Amino acid sequence: MSAQEYAFVVLAVVGSLSAIAVVTSTNVVHAALYLVVALLSVAGVYLLLGAEFVAWVQILIYVGAIVILFLFGLMLTKAPIGRDMLDNQNRWIGGVVGVGVFLGLVFLIQDAFKVQDSVARTTFQTTTADVGVSLFRDYVLPFEAVSFLLLAALIGAVVLARKDEAAK
Amino acid sequence: MIRLPFVLFFAALLFSAGVYGVLARRNAVMVLMAIELMLNAVNVNLVAFGSELHDVGGQMFALFVIAVAAAEVGIGLAIVILLYRNRESINIDEVNLLKW
Question: Is B40–A62 a contact, with Cβ atoms under 8 angstroms apart?
């Protein structure tokens, strides 16, 4: 195993444990903070895979913006604490389905890629310049579509969350 | 230098944790967090395959998924806040107005 693989294993273990903590924690704020750890370790995995721009976007958008939105959502809705308030009665079915999905995916990945005869290839190191060139040369139309989607989401969120004064 | 199946196993675990969270949680904000975990698992797969095939397209799609996830969380939390304002509760098993 190479040094990068050791680093990946550490990040993957930390990320997996905190991902499980996100969905099992009984305190909503702790769950949001575990989500930060999971997202940061995913960003570390991106760095190890040579995708530095995606890693920084992950940190800026997920850790910087989305988790803050979650914390505001928790604050504004006075989220309760405790397993019976946070989990529904059928969580054992959820556990069975989750473990089943994981085992099924592991079986399919092992079947398709064979861990024992997989070879490590050289890291595909991309710079921000490569990503920018590709984005504005090959993916201009999807880029514009995403910008339109973000505008629509912005307007939609404002319209939904604003207090309706005229109706009262 | 990382073997592809290892990354895929990590993504599979993130995705399964997200599936469990969506099914087991009754607080709407926690369900949204679990959805974020699943989207992250998909992104890890996209970047890993892009790296394996030496193609920048995987990273492009990961960036688009991140942008769509940001839009989804914004709208989702707006709906949750609206729900809380109308019903004083964001437990999704109590929202049964559209249930057949």
Answer: yes
